[in-house]
Amino acid sequence: MPLRSNPTYRQERLGAELRKMRERAGVTARAAAALLSSSPMYQSHVENGRSGISEDRIRRLARHCACDDSAYIDALVGMALERGKGWWEEYRGIVVPVGLNLAELEQHAVRIQTFQMAHIPGLLQTEDHMRAAFRYASPELTPQDLEAYVAFRLRRQHVITESPATPYEAIIHEAALRIRVGGRKTAHAQLERILERSELDHVTLRILPFAAEDFAGAGHSMDYLHGVAPQLDTVQTETGHGSVFIDAEPLLKQYRKRYDRVAGSALNPAESRDLIVHMLQEL
Fold first, then answer.
1. DSSP code, position 209
2. Phi, psi of 95, deg, nearest 5
3. Neighbour-count burial of 250, counting CB atoms closer than 10 A to its CB (0-12 exposed, 13-18 middle, 19+ buried)
4. What are phi and psi of 182, to 5 degrees?
5. pLDDT tens per residue across span 133-155
6. What's the distance, Cα to Cα, between the start and end of the chain in Å?
7. CA atoms within 13 A on the CB side of 3
8. Which of 60, 193, 264, 272 has a CA that sits 20 to 30 A from residue 213's CA?
9. Distance CA 234, CA 251 (A)
């Protein structure tokens, strides 16, 4: 089987988790390769996400490493057995890789939480809002690519609009809601869309108002994607040099704590809907 030249984040994550498993057990890469009747080079390729691995080898390695977390092991096996290409592959070469990886993570998440300071979450945006936002992209998108990006983001929204829907919780700062992206008409329709989505049983909407007195400020925007097993949680966040994925447990713990602190300052769902209704009346 040829090596993957550009493994996806999920493929790299599987390899990283297998490496962490053997390192926690004090097993060297050479010893793992011998156990699996393979070569150290193959072991390296697996742990870098460049080569696949069979279910039997994952379970054999887990037994040797005394890993008895069945949910975690089953989740790793599931990742290894993902043979089909997801819908996002249609956009490879058009949408940036980080966008494709985010779509794949959303597809496999069992729960999604997001907090946004200055932007409406992508899974809640209207088509007109998307178009207006993408026109600010740098470098500027061609008309054809802009249409592709809009179609891609609309397809991503299926994780919360189609059955089986993924539980989704969004905390949005009031500032993001008051920015009139695309003008008054588009902003009005965007607030209506958020209000509409908030009525779905699996969607929880909470607003962090300007009036919150114990909020420290910006810098906490994130998507927290819960994996099938807790060890497979991932945070997506924006930095000065672009979007990054975070999966180290100490950092995940910090982000969970940050999210919980923000949630403690946010309005409850009923109060949040009332605030949006008030904002709609003002537009």
1. -
2. -85, 140
3. exposed
4. 80, 0
5. 999 888 899 999 999 999 999 99
6. 59
7. 12
8. 193
9. 10
Q: Is this structure's pTM higher than 0.85?
A: yes
Which structure tokens are listed for 78? 């599931």
Residues 197 and 98: their CA atoms lie apart, in Å, by: 26
DSSP track, 92-127? BTTB-HHHHHHHHHHHH-SEEEEEESSS--GGG--H
What is the layout of strands, in order, in the sheet containing 168-173? 203-208, 168-173, 111-116, 222-226, 234-239, 242-246
E strands present in the chain: 111-116, 168-173, 203-208, 222-226, 234-239, 242-246
Residue whose C-alpha is closest to residue 178's, from 156, 151, 208: 208
Report whether the peptide linkage leading into residue 164 is cis, meaning its omega lies within 30 degrees of zero.
yes
Crossing angle of helices 9-24 and 40-47, rounded to 10°: 120
Place of tokens 């279910």: 55
Q: List beta partners, residue 113.
A: 169, 224
Are the C-beta atoms of residues 237 and 117 closer than 8 Å to each other?
A: no
Residue 79's Cα: distance from chain center in Å? 16
Cα–Cα distances in Å, from 203 out to 149, 185, 194, 220?
24, 25, 10, 21
CA distance 12 to 98: 13
pLDDT single digits (tens) 51-103: 999 999 999 999 999 999 999 999 999 999 987 689 999 999 999 999 999 99
Distance CA 207, CA 262 (A): 10
